[in-house]
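Comment thread on ticket #2218

A.B. wrote:
> Attaching the input chain for the structure job we discussed in standup.
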Amino acid sequence: MTAPDPKATVEPTDPDVDLHVPAQRQQSWRAQVPIVAVVALGGAIGASVRYGASQLWPVAAGGFPWTTLWVNALGCAVIGVFIVLITDVWAAHRLVRPFFGTGVLGGFTTFSTYAVDIQRLVDGGHPRTGLAYLAATLCAALAAVWLAATVARRLVARRQR
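C.D. wrote:
> Ran it. Output below, let me know if you need it in another format.
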C-alpha cells in the first residue's frame, strides 16, 4: 500500500494567491510590511518596559525571580482584557492586534527569561525553587488571563445593560 502524496492533500492558505507569480508574491510581501513594522515597534516598547521593571526590582542571584513572574502575570491579565475589548466591544484597526497583542505584550512578557531563570535556579543548586517558579508562573499566568477576561466580560455586559 502506498502512502498518499502529501502535496496532493495540502491546500494553500489563500487559493487566490500564487506565490510563483512574481507580481502576486510582491503584493503579498507589501501587505506584510506594515504588520512586521508595528510588531517590531510594539516589541521594542514592551521589551523596554520589561527591562525597566527588571532594573527597578532586581532579583538576587539564586533568589526567586518575582519580577519576571509578576511581569508575565500582568502581561497575561492585560491580554485577557485586551482580547475582550477588541472582540466584544469595538472593531479594532487591523494593525492594533499585531502592535499591542503580539508586539507590546509579546515584548513585555518573556518566556525566554522565564526559561533562563529556571535554568539558573537549577544550575545554581536550587532545583525546588526552580520547580516552584515554573509552576507558580504557569498558574499565575493562566489565572491572570482567565480572571481578567472574566471580569472584563462582566463589566462590558453590565455596561451594555
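A.B. wrote:
> Thanks. Noting for the ticket: Residues 9 and 153 are 40 Å apart (CA to CA).
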